[in-house]
Amino acid sequence: MKILLTDDDADHIALVQVLLDKMDGFEMHETQCFTVPADSLAWCEVNTPDLVIVDYMMPEVDGMEFIRRFRGMAGKEVIPVIMVTSRNEVGVRHQALKIGATDFLTKPVDTIELSARVRNMLTIRRNQKDLANRTEWLAGRLKRRRWILWRGSVKP
Fold it and tell me: What is the reported pTM?
């Protein structure tokens, strides 16, 4: 599973990355970290993360604008996004939810809360991928079945 972490504070990125690495039963992940939101968005143009963790307060491109641009990319509409914020303002959270945030974490990040939210979001993502794969498999089976039935109805 690929986790994208975007925060202009390199120390916060390092802390979250250490916490992610220490999560029990969570050895199979790859974390891409960016301190410049534009670089992170450029990476997203050619890569698809399974989870995005983005800070709210960043210069130039804040978390809201980041989510807006990320959600505008093809294939990124359902990927879980956790916004990290030190603000508890309801209006900020409502706006973030409207533009596509899936969940929130409050700074300073609590280890147990981070672990639970990341696990939940990755479970959602894994289920999305499993469902998409199953749907694709069933569509292929149906297409083959129709071809066999069509071919069987044609007499030489």
Answer: 0.84
